[in-house]
Amino acid sequence: MPLKSYGVLSGAVVNVQREGSTDSPHYQIEVVDEAGVHYRVAVNVESAQSPSELRFCVVEDFKHPVTDALPAESGWTTLLAGPGHANLDYIRANLFDPATMRLLPPDVSGPDNDLADLLDHYVLRAQRNAGARLYAFGERWGPENGKADKVFGFQPGNGVHDIHMNQGNDPTFERDDGVWQDGGLLLHLAAESRWVAIFLAFQSQSWHTDDATGHAIDGTPGPRERAPMRIVGALVNPVGPAPEAERVTLLNASPAELDLTGWRLADKAKRTCALPAGRLAAGATAVVPVTDGVALGNNGGAITLLDPQGLKVDGVSYTGAEAHDEGWTLVV
């Protein structure tokens, strides 16, 4: 079953604590909202299963429609499952390229060589940055009335955990699977006018999951290292009034010819249209018209490429600002 209480916490970073190499180490972050309520954000830096190192991805200049959907108020906000809200979904929301994820140990001696060091670099920067806000996605616990927080001591104990991918788990943790309920950290560095995003996943998790349950479709863990077909461009705001002739440019990045029969494109609402049947030579591009009610909105959106089995091969996103000017093909 999905997480019991999924949502996003926003507030200012006031303290951090590293737990070193304990049995189940976390990177602990103390956050306070504008009402003065304190929370603890518990970030896993090691898996209880082998292999233990987590996959991570940092996007230094994160641009995605989800930032426009975030709640304006600080504190905890419960999010209902589904697209079109501020929810994270590593597979369906096209937040980042999974092939860019890397591995780091949790906490070892020496500078800049473990996951805790990486989190320090960004979270401590947010703590020092006037006006910076942390957004932590995951499952809420508390408030634990009458109990002090076990790490930072504030009362009542209160916080967020599961700050990582929450689908495609192996059978041991399958009960936590769900769609549109992934964890992660977004840092708005207001003084620098940019967002930093940090995404985490366990090596045992599958990146092909059921659209209803979030359960793994196959037993292959980890993201695909190299996609044979890539989305490289999109004309989402053609010149002229609606309905517009939107188009997506695809590249066959593989060394072999590909049969496009059965392949489909999906928009952020998961409406799909078929690619024109035919064969695409190795290294060649194809400009595909968007049809059958699929819409690439001018206020930001997502484009996903599905193979004949319905599995995601590639996906991109774009913001309203990027789609603002008519006639420009977005290079994605």
How would you sum up this structure, described in words?
This protein is mainly β. It has helices at 66-69, 115-128, and strands at 6-18, 26-32, 38-44, 54-59, 75-78, 102-104, 133-144, 157-161, 184-189, 194-201, 229-235, 247-252, 258-259, 264-266, 272-274, 279-280, 285-289, 300-306, 312-319, 330-331. The chain folds into 2 domains: 6-201, no CATH class; 229-331, Lamin Tail domain (Immunoglobulin-like, Sandwich), CATH 2.60.40.1260. The protein has 2 helices and 20 strands. The strands form 4 sheets. A 5-stranded mixed barrel has the order 1-2-3-8-7. Strands 17-12-11-20 form a 4-stranded antiparallel sheet, with no helix packed on it. Strands 15-14-18-19 form a 4-stranded antiparallel sheet, with no helix packed on it. The longest helix has 14 residues, at 115-128. The model has no long low-confidence stretch (mean pLDDT 93).
**Unreliable runs, pLDDT <50, ≥5 residues?**
none
Structural class: mainly beta
What's the domain count?
2
Multimeric organization: single chain
* Proportion in β-strands: 25-35%
Q: How many separate helices?
A: 2
List the helices and strands and how they pair.
Elements: E1 6-18, E2 26-32, E3 38-44, E4 54-59, H1 66-69, E5 75-78, E6 102-104, H2 115-128, E7 133-144, E8 157-161, E9 184-189, E10 194-201, E11 229-235, E12 247-252, E13 258-259, E14 264-266, E15 272-274, E16 279-280, E17 285-289, E18 300-306, E19 312-319, E20 330-331
